[in-house]
Amino acid sequence: MLLVYLNSIANRNAFTLEVINKLSSIRCEGLDLVVFSNRGDVFSSGLDLGVFLRGSVAAREYLASLHRLVEHVLDCTATTVAYLSGDAYGFGVEFTYFVDYVVAAAPGLKLSLQGIKLGVFPPYTIMLAELLGYNVVRSLLARPITAEEAKAMGLIHHIGTLDDAIRKIFIVPRHTFRIVKYNRHMIRKHLKEEVLYQLAALADDEDTKSLISRFLRKS
């Protein structure tokens, strides 16, 4: 088992380019299980919003790197788990769509797509809306939800300790992995990079940049 921690506590474990590159370098070959978890009280605060203040070219390059990370996680030949021991925001929530199992440490942990308030839409929630289902997407876009609510929606599979969750997880044998994990191919079919281009274009929108600037000053 490989245990990978998001450990940029000063940035509330945001997916900065440095974090994206480190996660994209993880090798899954020969592993049965890869677990992504966090240090600190936040699983991840999501995208590095500061990138959107540098214009659409920088945002597009950043989102391209993020998309390569998504593809890398989907290509991982090990069973993948996200263990949330803190709240998840924005892409911190969306990252969990691409792993096989999602576990929350406590029922009251929050999942929030807060970027909506800043004019930054959640790209992978939009792309995967058909797979996630209307009611799930509507709930995610309306307000923060608890891990307990997310479990009822099927977004989280287990609430409790990581050790307890691992005992209950089906570790898929490598020789049948690609057949059994066909759901990953279903996800990939719905990934539309043009949605990322639309998001990157918001980095040239003055209203969006103003909202992000105010948010970052308060953070």
UniProtKB/TrEMBL annotation:
<dbReference type="Pfam" id="PF00378">
    <property type="entry name" value="ECH_1"/>
</dbReference>
<protein>
    <submittedName>
        <fullName>Enoyl-CoA hydratase</fullName>
        <ecNumber>4.2.1.17</ecNumber>
    </submittedName>
</protein>
<dbReference type="InterPro" id="IPR001753">
    <property type="entry name" value="Enoyl-CoA_hydra/iso"/>
</dbReference>
<dbReference type="InterPro" id="IPR029045">
    <property type="entry name" value="ClpP/crotonase-like_dom_sf"/>
</dbReference>
<dbReference type="GO" id="GO:0004300">
    <property type="term" value="F:enoyl-CoA hydratase activity"/>
</dbReference>
<dbReference type="GO" id="GO:0006635">
    <property type="term" value="P:fatty acid beta-oxidation"/>
</dbReference>
<keyword id="KW-0456">Lyase</keyword>
